[in-house]
Amino acid sequence: MSQLSSLSASGLTCERDERTLFESLDFTLSSGEVLQVAGPNGAGKTTLMRVIAGLALDFHGDIVWNGQPVKDDRPGFQASLLYMGHQPGVKSIMTPEENLQWSMGLHRKLDKEEIWGALKKVQLRGYEDVPCYQLSAGQNRRVALARLFLARQKLWILDEPFTAIDKAGIAELEQTLVDHARRGGMVMMTTHHEMDMDYSGFRQLVLGGE
Amino acid sequence: MSVMSGFGVVLKRDLHLAFRNRGDLINPLVFFMLVATLFPLGVGPDPETLMIMGGGVIWVSALLSNLLAMDSLFRSDFEDGSLEQLMLAPQPLWMTAMAKVISHWLVTGLPLTLLSPVLAIMFGLPSEALPAIVATLFLGTPLLSLIGAIGAGLTVGLRKGGILLSLLTLPLYIPVLILGTGAIDAAVSGMAWHGHLLWQGVLLVLGITFAPLAISASLRISVSG
To answer: Is there a contact between A149 and A117 (Cβ–Cβ < 8 Å)?
Structure first.
């Protein structure tokens, strides 16, 4: 994590049903920064996250990762990306342990102790063998968030990560994001939660502010 | 992280999910057996007629049961966001798609192929036709899964994709069906049937080569829209 990285977007324009969500949007995100994308409902926050992650293909503009256009080296970009969308990708018929085994197993080799450690950090120790459909919405979200403790990726793109998480959980999660940024990572996230982050690398990008 | 271990993770995950969902696992097989066993009740027990139709009925049942199972290939992954996770993994998407199709075939096409001799005996097909039935299904069902996955990828984002999926993929299934039943007919009448089988092999190689690329492109379109 010592090497500095940067993500920059220039001239991003996206239209949905003949309505412009954002136009000529420019921003840069560097190692050590936490960027909160803010704006009212329907302002295009999720779309922006999906455009950056490479899931939405219908946009104009350039996205550059470490000085190289993302479209030239997509596998390289994806190797340093951790994305979590509205639907966090937790299989309800699998246990938390199995869920982490596959979702992070795609990125690197894991052993059981590591997974248990991550589950402990999200207060799910003791639930590793319970199928996720028996867990609450917040616990399911925590299964997805446990990925953050296993991730070696630099760029985290998190869409509404605080949904269904309790107050104490949110505070811990904010701390995790700051710790990641301090280690040279970068976070791009959306939330409607008031972020009281006392961190110099915290920035906001407001969409749809006319 | 090597590309192959990512392939293994997806394959293991999908097999795991399939065996967790036993109902979904058995459904296509039960359907296959039911359709084929209902035919003699419908057309009467005349051994001559049954022998003529046998190969065709087995193949059509296999095709329909494959189609039935196809809709669920990407649906649950699409709905719970797992598909996005799979797409943004460092492995190329065609490889992930291939792993999913293989696991799908292992739980639908393969058991169906293994069950087919039972149905063949039930229809009174001569024992010389048994190798033809098993061999054509063995080469044909993976091809059906590959073709069906392209349609499943395209329709996964639609709310009611099932009918569209059938309309899209059935025309592409037809050559596979004709070659399969052609080989069985030839075998029943005691002629050489390897020609048909070779053509099926050619199509399968073509499918293995190009279908994963088409599946990954169709998934990108669905997820992007």
So the answer is: yes
- Closest Cα of chain B to A89: distance in Å? 4
Contacts with B81 from chain A: Cβ below 8 Å: 85-90
Give the number of domains in chain B.
Answer: 1
Residues B91-107 have pLDDT tens digits of 999 999 999 999 999 99
| pLDDT 10s digits, B70-81 | 988 999 999 999
Mean pLDDT value across chain A: 89
Say whether A107 and B90 touch across the interface (CB within 8 A): yes
Are B92 and B3 in contact by the 8 Å Cβ rule? The answer is: yes
- Residue A28's SS3 state is strand
**Which residue is listed with tokens 């089988």?**
B197
- pLDDT of res. B107: 93
Looking at residue A160, the DSSP 8-state letter turns out to be S
Within 70-129 of A, beta carbons closer than 8 Å to B belong to 75, 78-79, 81, 83, 85-94, 98, 102-103, 105-109
A18 or B172: whose pLDDT is higher?
B172
pLDDT of residue A209: 57
> What's the CA gap between A176 and A161, in Å, rounded?
12
Query: Is A87 exposed, middle or buried, given 0-12, 13-18 or 19+ CB atoms closer than 10 A?
Result: middle
> What's the domain range around B73?
3-224
- The C-alpha of B128 sits at a distance from chain A's nearest C-alpha, in angstroms, of 44
Chain A positions touching B88 (Cβ under 8 A) are 53-55, 78, 81, 83
Q: Pick the more confident residue, B173 or A18.
A: B173
Residues of B in contact with A107 (CB under 8 A): 1, 89-90
A206 pLDDT more than 60: yes
Report whether B109 contacts B66 (CB < 8 A): yes
Q: Identify all chain B residues contacting A15, using CB atoms and an 8 Å cutoff.
A: none
Arithmetic mean of pLDDT, A85-108: 91
Residue of B nearest to A103 (CA): B85
Residue B102: name the closest of B13, B1, B180 by CA.
Answer: B13
